[in-house]
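Q: Hi! Curious about what hydroxymethylglutaryl-CoA reductase (NADPH) looks like structurally. Here's the sequence.
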Amino acid sequence: MPKLNLSHRNKTSIFDQELHSGTIEKRLRPNCAPAKQQLTKGPYISVKNLDKRWDVLEELTQKQHLLDPMTDQHAQLYNKNIEHFIGTVKIPVGVAGPLRVNGLHAHGDYLIPLATTEAALVASYNRGAMLITAGGGASAMLLNEGVTRTPVFEFLELSQAGQFVAWVVTQYEQFKKIAESTTAHGRLSDINVNIEGNRVYLIFEFQTGDASGQNMVTIATNEVFNYISTHSPIQPQDAFLDGNLSGDKKPNAHTLRHVRGKKVSAEINLSKPLVEKYLHTTPEKMVKFGQITAVGASISGGIGVNAHYANALAALYAACGQDIACVAESAIGVTRMEMNAQGGLYACVTLPNIMVGTVGGGTHLPSQKACLEIMGLYGTGKARALAEVTAALCLAGELSIVGAFCAGHFSRAHQKLAR
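A: Let's find out. The predicted structure is below.
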């Protein structure tokens, strides 16, 4: 048994007591007794299933906190979004803005609903939005879009992998036809090949219209995957629908140069008086802070450089019915601040992984639909605009938090608003 480091006994004293008393083995021993609390086996929403679940849960908490009358009345709306439904969680929603966006698709002043339990967050984004609007608005440009799924095929040896690829490259039109037969809105736009020894990863990239598109591309790729399994002249030893090359819900460096979801850049030039008025600091100090923290990000092994994209993305995604787990990849990007020719501040953000949609997913649910409607971005034809607004919101947050650190207000704001 490895020796314990007892140099800091205050940190290990409890563990020592457990170790010497012999309770660790007892507590960690498998327990195969039947679970005491059994819920329904059926995952779907029905009055019967809800009643059965709450027969158990009401012993643990108050039903109305999760299954309030409004939620109960609209329960069937959630059938395509969740299994083993018991109610809804109410996250406080605040509004930031107006945020002025001068984009290719988003053009106007937007009120931004943000769902969070973190004090000071909405206030910070509101301050950044006010600054951007006062400065004439953020310019925002959608640069690229595409959602990937990456099936992998394993063969006995490299030569078989090569023969497989030689066949695959002749099948593009067939793959495209099969994939697009599963969706009215998706389009297979590209296929890339990555060979790693005796394994072949196929990178299928789709345009997903106004949907975020993860389910769409999974279903479409699965049809092609089945076709390959049946028709490939070289049969793989093994194959899986996704080989983890897509970056789905994981931070990854590849998309910094490419795209997953929607890639957007947003920028603004701010005069020195505006920075001083709204942020109580100077452009020079903000630029210096950016330089120092970029080195810090490099030392820590960060992918990209930003202060807190995740705050904006999680709050916006939760409010607007997006897949919140996509924050893991969406929060990758680069923030840059420089002095401009007029002695003011140039600030820009580039986010290559904005995973948003204005149809499908959770966008049709009552609260989430209402939040999209506040921005005027619910429904068909609005997803590209939502991506540009999202990037501008992240820019607002970067300006605000960097300003707060430079002015020495960061801790004070949290003390004031969180207490």
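A: A fun detail: The longest strand covers residues 138-149.
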